[in-house]
Amino acid sequence: MDKRKFRKVMAANRGEIAIRIFRACTELGISTVAIYSEEDKLSLHRYKADEAYLVGKGKAPIDAYLGIEEIITLALKADVDAIHPGYGFLSENPEFAERCEAAGIAFIGPTAEMQRALGDKVAARKVAVAAGVAVVPGTEEPTEHEEEALIFAKQHGYPIIIKAAAGGGGRGMRVARNKKELLEGLTSARSEAKAAFGNPAVFLERYIENPKHIEVQVLGDGHGNLVHFFERDCSIQRRHQKVVEFAPSLCLTEQQRSAICADALKIASQVSYRNAGTVEFLIDKEGSHYFIEMNPRIQVEHTVTEMITGRNLVQAQILVAEGHRLSDPEIGITTQMDVSKRGYAIQCRITTEDPTNNFAPDFGTITTYRSSAGCGVRLDAGNAFTGSHITPHYDSLLVKVSAWGLSFVEAARIMNRSLQEFRVRGVKTNIPFLENVVTHPVFLAGGCDTSFIDKHPELLQ
Ligand code: ADP
């Protein structure tokens, strides 16, 4: 791949991640292009770019950011060199990556081929097995027939988790604790997967009780050079969706850390990975780690890794897409030893959801918005300002708060102070719930596993 300097980059996304991309570009001297739907005509990301174009006129709000044809036509008209897909929307759509490249526009992400090898969970498990990395015991192929499911249950016992091969965002999963739940779950998971992801394929895995979710941030340049940026602990989840994330983990010995990071690199190198990516593992009570999936894109929680390593991951994505090698001065990573970490960082996702009403999304106009600031705090906000209209059309993430401290407890104290400083009126937020999490003794001791929120209903008060 030849090197080329991007002059203009489009973010095919909205909200905080579009703004994050624009900031990274501006710092690199690249001009920026936003797209926005009719529902987003007053959204902040539109005004944070040098140019902005309406997309998806007359389409459903979500579909505006999924129109491959329209987005590429617009990108050509606006003369952009590259498109950054952010997360969600088209970020894991190999067809989009292919169409960009065919139009002469660089896709800031892995090649379509790499996406195909990793995007589908069943395919990714095969990559991990080929790389010699342990996966959660599961079916090698999608499970179509009841008999296959029953044979798996006989071999591995219950509980079993039924997962959509194309799943994401914690959706399309079902836990079965007996034969009846397995057979019923198989049918309902398939139809749910078809409706949500357009692909009915599901597979089975042994369900690990109360695991920790540990994921490793990697970066590859597509020339065979790969490094990791240590791990994040994302065990604090609600309905299999991450709520609070931190780095580094408090539950790994140095030996375990080296082993899990090495395994992540083995998987990425199996496909000569290019771009930032995240290799996700579950850790069982015995401390063994098992690969579950790889996300070939930037993730919501990348901020905590940036804070402990001092590295700008979104800029690294752009530089790698420009054709740079990791060792080029622009990135400056010649060996793994060049990546170091310091302190602890925690991220909380402030959402417009009501924790006292089962986290129902809330809508309306924000009448007061005062955010926190100060030593050790980083904010990545979407439509967070006084007068902002929160609509039901998109996800409920309002602002990501990240806090850094030399120790985990100090980071937690800064986070708590920061959450307390916020004033958001007009719409309900989950701030009171987040305050309860970051002051909880189990959290402060690093003891949270994926069952933490379910086991502590007092967090909701
Ligand atoms: P998604 O792509 O939807 O995020 P993942 O495969 O990454 O799905 O899993 C999300 C979460 O679901 C995990 O962090 C974990 O809490 C739970 N989970 C997934 N697979 C298993 C499993 N085999 N055993 C126990 N929990 C699981």
TrEMBL record:
Please give the superkingdom of this protein's source. Answer: Bacteria
Give start and end of each Biotin carboxylation domain. Answer: 5-458
Occurrences of domain ATP-grasp (ranges):
125-322
What is the protein's known function?
Answer: Catalyzes a 2-step reaction, involving the ATP-dependent carboxylation of the covalently attached biotin in the first step and the transfer of the carboxyl group to pyruvate in the second.
| Full protein name | Pyruvate carboxylase
Taxon lineage: Bacteria, Pseudomonadati, Thermodesulfobacteriota, Desulfuromonadia, Geobacterales
Q: Parent protein range shown?
A: 1 to 461 of 1148
